[in-house]
Automatic annotation (TrEMBL):
This is AIFM3 factor. Residues 67-162 form the Rieske domain. Transmembrane segments: none annotated. Pfam families: Pyr_redox_2, Rieske. InterPro entries: FAD-oxidoreductase/Apoptosis, FAD/NAD-bd_sf, FAD/NAD-binding_dom, FAD/NAD-linked_Rdtase_dimer_sf, Rieske_2Fe-2S, Rieske_2Fe-2S_sf. The lineage of its organism: Eukaryota, Metazoa, Chordata, Craniata, Vertebrata. One of its GO terms (cellular component) is mitochondrion. Keywords: 2Fe-2S, FAD, Flavoprotein, Iron, Iron-sulfur, Metal-binding, Oxidoreductase. The gene is Aifm3. GO terms for molecular function: 2 iron, 2 sulfur cluster binding; metal ion binding; oxidoreductase activity, acting on NAD(P)H. GO terms for biological process: execution phase of apoptosis. Belongs to the FAD-dependent oxidoreductase family. The keyword ATP-binding does not apply. It comes from Tricholaema leucomelas (pied barbet).
Length: 548
């Protein structure tokens, strides 16, 4: 909050998030509806009723706060300011002569948006690059699922006023209005309109986008995981997180919006002629539209002793939790200086007795960030007690009473090890599509166009398992296995299932966090031949530009 000139103020009004309107009732069945009609190739839709804005858009006058926040001349065009309304804060923005007010925190991880970037009617989060429309509050680039609450602003006698719902000020997030499944006839469990294989970010955003767009037919997601969709980047960044803590949506959300999730269900084959997915247990499900968003499978070690106990790929919350428990005051060996390997090393360095990292390359992140940045990061790790064994690999894992005891390197070095984490890359989880007729490249990636369509009509693919044309690199076919991109793929796929003709044009963005430092990377620098560095690499306060 700030001092105001006498008798001159600014007002902000907060519009109640739509999700609070009458608190969505459960679906007719009290859970995601299992009722299905025979697939007939057509999707039934209804449009969400337009809610005309009443003169007072709040159910409960006690929930409303109104405050003057500044003089109209206090903000220049292109400026943002965090303002306090007494029971919560809002972000006041002036652009093109108009004032706007939205939530001040990014709904993803709570970053202060006032430190972000305002450009062309959007504010971009300073931490992970999510982007919000300043007029509507809607999320327009990812990561994250929710939009910002939008608050009403009015100008009276050169003062700016904001009017807000106290609840919206406190939650700082808004779930977009969504459709539900309309009551379905011709009960048939083994058929759905939309089938989504995979329950990561791409699959979930696809399902949510369909509902946001008014799609009211059956949506089924299936996953090999035992959990509902969760925040996978946290598995290596905060390894002791429990599944409930990192769930992307609570169980009630899926019931409310009739998004069915089949857990521990693996698809073994897709029959494109009969539009059917065949599950490993023999169950078959017909679909009208299909999204394949199966992600990737971690590579295993191929050395002697690879089946020894206490050797892990970090694939699930249980894996991550178990590693943390086993590593306490013990010797940890990490194989692979990948993002996952380096994040795990950073996380365990304070908890384990020792952390050793084995890597074939000379410097970590050399291919992504170049030699100089890689060396600076390596130095930071070494000053935090992580020991590197570079330009070598594992030749044997030795056990004592079935449990890991030593890791033997090709260089001849023997490392004491109670637990080993393998982070040597991943391959696309697409082997079940080999005979399907869906186009897959030589590395196993599903080939899609800018609308996330495969070569088969009605079949879309998204996320880590695809190669797609990247607009900013002259439509070069690329694979970008990052969290933000998976969200956007899911959204574009959903819009094109509904025939909106939307093309993918987002800029790839990734982040990694280690020892309280984060590296944030925008663009696609594959094939760079020079790195221009501004700032101080030794202090890790720098910007690097990858050029060709």
């Amino acid at each position: 909050s700030f001092l105001l000139a006498p008798a001159v103020e600014v007002k902000i009004e907060v519009v109640l998030p739509e999700k609070e309107r009458g608190k969505e009732e459960m679906s007719a069945n009290g859970r995601a509806s299992p009722l299905v009609y025979k697939v007939n190739g057509t999707a039934r839709h209804y449009h969400l009723e337009e809610h005309p804005m009443a003169s007072n858009p709040y159910h409960n006058p006690r929930d409303v706060v109104e405050a003057s926040v500044c003089h109209v001349k206090d903000l220049e065009n292109g400026q943002m300011r965090e303002v306090d309304l007494g029971c919560g804060k809002a972000l006041l923005i002036k652009e093109g002569g108009d004032f706007h007010a939205v939530g001040h925190k990014c709904p993803h991880y709570g970053a202060p948006l006032v430190k972000g970037v305002l450009s062309k009617g959007r504010v971009r989060c300073p931490w992970h690059g999510a982007c919000f429309n300043i007029t509507t509050g809607d999320i327009e680039d990812f990561p994250g699922l929710d939009s910002l609450p939008r608050f009403q602003v009015k100008i009276e006698k050169e003062k700016v006023y904001i009017r807000a719902s106290k609840q919206a000020l406190q939650t700082q997030r808004r779930t977009k209005m969504m459709a539900k499944c309309i009551s379905l006839s011709n009960y048939n469990l083994s058929s759905t309109n939309v089938l989504i294989i995979g329950a990561g970010a791409a699959g979930l955003v696809c399902a949510e986008t369909l509902r946001q767009e008014g799609f009211s037919d059956r949506i089924v997601m299936c996953t090999m995981d035992r959990h509902l969709p969760y925040d996978r980047p946290k598995l290596s960044k905060s390894m002791d997180s429990h599944p409930e803590q990192i769930a992307l949506r609570p169980k009630e959300f899926f019931c409310s919006y009739d998004i069915e999730v089949l857990t521990e269900m693996q698809v073994a084959a897709v029959d494109i002629k009969n539009k059917t997915a065949v599950f490993k247990d023999g169950f078959k499900m017909e679909y009208n539209k299909l999204l394949i968003a199966t992600g990737s499978t971690p590579k295993a070690l191929s050395c002697k002793g690879k089946e020894v106990e206490n050797v892990f790929n970090i694939r699930t919350p249980e894996d991550a939790n178990r590693v943390v428990k086993l590593a306490a005051s013990k010797n940890v060996v990490i194989v692979g200086a990948s993002f996952l390997g380096m994040e795990v090393a950073a996380y365990l360095s304070e908890r384990a007795h020792s952390v050793s990292l084995v890597e074939l390359e000379e410097v970590p992140f050399r291919r992504s960030f170049g030699e100089r940045v890689g060396r600076a990061v390596m130095k930071m790790f070494e000053s935090n007690r992580v020991k590197f064994y570079m330009q070598t690999e594992v030749s044997e894992l030795r056990e004592q009473e079935g449990k890991l005891k030593e890791v033997v390197l090709k260089s001849g070095k023997v490392l004491r090890a109670d637990v080993c984490v393998v982070g040597v890359g991943a391959v696309p989880a697409t082997s079940f599509l080999k005979q399907s007729g869906i186009n897959i490249d030589s590395k196993g990636f599903i080939v899609v166009n800018k609308m996330m369509q495969t070569n088969v009509p009605g079949v879309f693919a998204a996320g880590d398992a695809v190669t797609f044309p990247l607009a900013l690199r002259n439509n070069k076919k690329v694979n970008v296995p990052h969290w933000q991109m998976a969200h956007m793929h899911g959204r574009v796929a959903a819009l094109n299932m509904l025939a909106h003709g939307v093309e993918l044009s987002t800029v790839p963005y990734l982040w990694t966090a280690m020892f309280g430092r984060s590296i944030r990377y925008a663009g696609h620098g594959e094939g760079f031949d020079d790195v221009v560095i501004q700032g101080d690499l030794d202090e890790l306060k720098f910007v690097a530009f990858y050029t060709k």
